[in-house]
């Protein structure tokens, strides 16, 4: 047995109606799908062999699903790997096979309705996006066709019908059960709290060299630096090429280009624009930036051509070429792959390229950022290590002070819980007990389990911690001291608020539907988890996921 849905759950978290991305930026076209091909062995599901054609169709359906829900193709989104897409493709194949065995079929009328709803959801002000425009702007650049869209819509409707069929048992929630669940989630509590923040105890911490050294020795692993790299680089700032860009654009009449682009695409060229004037301004900015990029690229390409021609190839060559061409050479401080250079906000490609450098290949290709073009050379590589205490003493000292202050805060909170319980037992209020100990009580706005935020707690505690304490503590009693990253708190449950029956009556029908949909999805997801664990054993994707699961 293995956890098939270890990482992504795009199909597992099922949407019960066809939805679409809230924006479509027609000015950016997804490139042809990549990811390579698979061997001729696609495995089998329910004893039936999966053909290459069936697999490819399911993969295209997943691509459509992803674009419609996230506004971009999965192979263009960081963090979505080829293995992830492979998993989702096989999930679609599994559901399709099960639907076929159940005799689930989508007729042409339902398909036409779904297509009309989809195009309308992508439009503005209730107007549908024309099918030919959708095909030209979205499908064709990705190598897809109208038939691929039809296949997806039919598959999506099939998935929904399969969910309703297999999740039927989970949808049988009575109004009485929903009413009880509503009360549990919406019953509000009135509570007070005393917070013990570590920052209030910093002044009581005594710092000694021995204490800091001992703290460092016990927590050395926390100070380990990851692999880091330092690079030398030249930068071609786009703003330096504005004059040349405008000269070039002036020859072709920039305003005419902007007007032509707006006439062709209208407001859809810039979905975020509120007026035609704003849209045209954004289009103009785009043309200018592209011209700046072209001019900067010429200079950067000349630099790279000279650099790559030098023999022997070594990182130091970049300094010689920079001096020859009168271009300033910069060098970064060492940085890790997780946070990049600290001297400036580098594009993600800058950091990725830096960690791809080596002594054999010391130079990067040209890297284009939002406002500059870069070319990198390896300066030095630093393997993971733990700095000596003297190198990071100030940082260690600050950590020690905060740790000691947090300990003092938690001790104060624990003591207050004991004394407050005694004082409340002899007739005093929680507020009186708090003030007697020189603590400031905080009245919290009434909240329930469904409350999204409690403004009074700020960043002194997690919302879930407050709820947990409130709904597990008897009315009229203080909670145990609860430790937090900030220190901790003691909560006093003052009263349970009367239920707003008018609000409940108005909201209960929708709440009942939500509960039923949730239970239905849970039942279907449980089936899908079990079925995937069994049926996908006979597919190539099984070994990939089983291996990943055992590595966790």
Tally of discrete structural domains:
3
> Termini, distance in Å?
14 Å
Q: Order of helices and strands, N to C?
A: EEHHHHHHEHEHHHHEEHEEHHEHEEHH
Instruction: Quickly give the structural class.
Output: alpha+beta
How is the main sheet built?
5 strands, antiparallel
**Annotation, overall tally of beta strands:** 11
Quaternary form: single chain
* CATH class category of the largest domain: Mainly Alpha
Structural topology:
Elements (H helix, E strand, L loop, with lengths): L43 E2 L2 E2 L2 H19 L11 H20 L6 H15 L8 H9 L6 H21 L8 H12 L2 E9 L11 H10 L9 E10 L4 H10 L2 H12 L10 H34 L7 H9 L4 E2 L3 E2 L11 H7 L12 E2 L3 E11 L10 H33 L4 H7 L4 E7 L15 H8 L11 E2 L3 E10 L4 H35 L4 H12 L1
């Amino acid at each position: 047995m293995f956890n098939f849905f270890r990482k992504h759950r795009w199909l597992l978290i099922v949407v019960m109606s066809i939805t679409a991305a809230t924006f479509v930026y027609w000015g950016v076209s997804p490139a042809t799908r990549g990811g390579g091909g698979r061997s001729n062995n696609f495995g089998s599901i329910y004893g039936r062999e999966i053909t290459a054609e069936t697999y490819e169709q399911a993969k295209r359906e997943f691509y459509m699903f992803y674009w419609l829900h996230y506004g971009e193709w999965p192979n263009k989104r960081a963090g979505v790997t080829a293995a992830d897409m492979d998993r989702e493709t096989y999930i679609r194949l599994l559901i399709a096979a099960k639907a076929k065995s159940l005799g689930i079929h989508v007729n042409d009328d339902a398909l036409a309705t779904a297509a009309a709803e989809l195009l309308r959801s992508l439009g503005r002000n209730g107007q549908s996006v024309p099918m030919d425009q959708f095909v030209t702007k979205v499908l064709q650049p990705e190598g897809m066709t109208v038939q691929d869209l039809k296949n997806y819509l039919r598959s999506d409707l099939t998935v929904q019908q399969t969910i309703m069929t297999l999740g039927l048992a989970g949808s049988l929630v009575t109004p009485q059960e929903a009413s009880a669940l509503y009360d549990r989630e919406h019953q509000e509590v009135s509570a007070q709290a005393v917070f013990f923040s570590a920052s209030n105890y910093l002044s009581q911490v005594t710092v000694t060299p021995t204490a800091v050294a001992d703290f460092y020795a016990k927590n050395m692993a926390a100070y380990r630096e990851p692999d880091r790299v330092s690079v030398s680089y030249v930068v071609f700032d786009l703003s330096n090429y504005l004059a040349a860009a405008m000269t070039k654009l002036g020859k072709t009449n920039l305003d005419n280009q902007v007007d032509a682009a707006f006439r062709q695409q209208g407001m859809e060229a810039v979905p975020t624009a509120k007026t035609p004037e704003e849209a045209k301004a954004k289009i103009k900015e785009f043309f200018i930036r592209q011209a700046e990029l072209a001019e900067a690229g010429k200079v950067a390409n000349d630099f790279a051509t000279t650099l790559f021609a030098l023999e022997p190839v070594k990182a130091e060559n970049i300094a010689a070429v920079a001096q020859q061409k009168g271009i300033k050479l910069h060098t970064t401080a060492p940085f890790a792959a997780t946070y990049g250079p600290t001297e400036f906000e580098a594009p993600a490609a800058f950091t990725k390229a830096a960690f791809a450098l080596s002594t054999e290949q010391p130079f990067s290709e040209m890297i284009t950022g939002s406002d500059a073009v870069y070319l990198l050379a390896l300066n030095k590589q630093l393997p993971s290590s733990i700095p000596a205490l003297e190198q990071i003493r100030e940082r260690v000292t600050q950590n020690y002070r905060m740790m000691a202050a947090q300990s003092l805060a938690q001790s104060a909170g624990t003591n207050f819980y004991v004394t407050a319980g005694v004082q409340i037992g002899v007739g005093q209020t929680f507020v009186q007990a708090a003030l007697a100990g020189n603590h400031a009580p905080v009245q919290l706005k009434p909240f329930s389990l469904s409350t999204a935020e409690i403004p009074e707690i700020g960043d002194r505690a997690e919302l879930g911690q407050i709820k947990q304490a409130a709904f597990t503590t008897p009315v009229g009693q203080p909670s145990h001291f609860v430790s937090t990253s900030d220190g901790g708190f003691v909560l006093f449950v003052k009263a349970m608020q009367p239920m707003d029956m008018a609000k409940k009556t108005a909201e209960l029908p929708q709440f009942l539907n939500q509960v039923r949909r949730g239970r239905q999805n849970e039942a279907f997801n449980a089936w899908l988890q079990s079925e995937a664990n069994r049926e996908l054993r006979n597919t190539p994707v099984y070994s990939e996921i089983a291996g990943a699961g055992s590595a966790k």
